Amino acid sequence: MTKETINAKPWLYDAQVHMLPWRQDQYEEMQSRPLVIGVISDDGVVKVHPPIERVLQEVREKIKAAGHEVVPWDVSGHDDCIHIMVWLNVNNPSLVLIISQDEYYLADGCEDIRKEVAIGGEPLIPHVQALVDRAAHTAKSVYEYWQLNRRKLAAQQRQLQKWNDFRSPSGHSVDILISPTMPHPAVRHRGCKWVGYTKVWNVLDYTALTIPAGVVSKELDQAQLPQYQPRNDIDRWNWDQYDLDIMKDHTVSIQIIGRRLDEERVLGAARVIEQVLRA
Topology of 2-278 in CATH? Predict the structure, then answer.
């Protein structure tokens, strides 16, 4: 579907689309050799639930057994990206965190959302209503907005340099990253509070794809880790959601992440990983 969409030359119809044809050679190249894969198991803010930790470990072992090089990925700088998207203020010695203001989301005081929803004539859903209610005095000046963009570009440059500088024990650069998608399996409606595992890629404008990689198992995931001490309020909230009775048999997914405009390489790597998991 991605290939067919690109082959339709959308840049002829949308001025915002890059004139970038489908690169079959990159898609195939990722399937022709052992890959170097960086693994993010913890973003340092919210610890993932035991089923996600287990599935990610299983994926890591299967990939390694298939002949690919697996290395841990340093998440330093991710908090910078999250701070740019979300203003955080938490009580942790190393990182303080409780969401108080979404800088980009509220940049125009939610005026655009208000006007568009008013045209439709339907009520706001609770999540959006809460966002709009918080936005009354958050509109930024043009200068403030461009300073926010400068911070984002600086963070993107730092992460680009980090990726360029990294070398695995074999001396190679990392092809793609894998990480949890969320810190929990499916939760109840309006029960999602931490999206740091995905939001960081939005800020960096990186390519990310999600595939199913396992399921929650009552037999394998019994451990509640009662000795675990939450790092902050969001981490404590996430841990309180862990309920095997309602989460059992739900899908656990992983993310496959590449650099900016790396769609073909990410899709090629996803095919490799999917075949490894199916085998």
Answer: Amidase signature (AS) enzymes (3.90.1300)
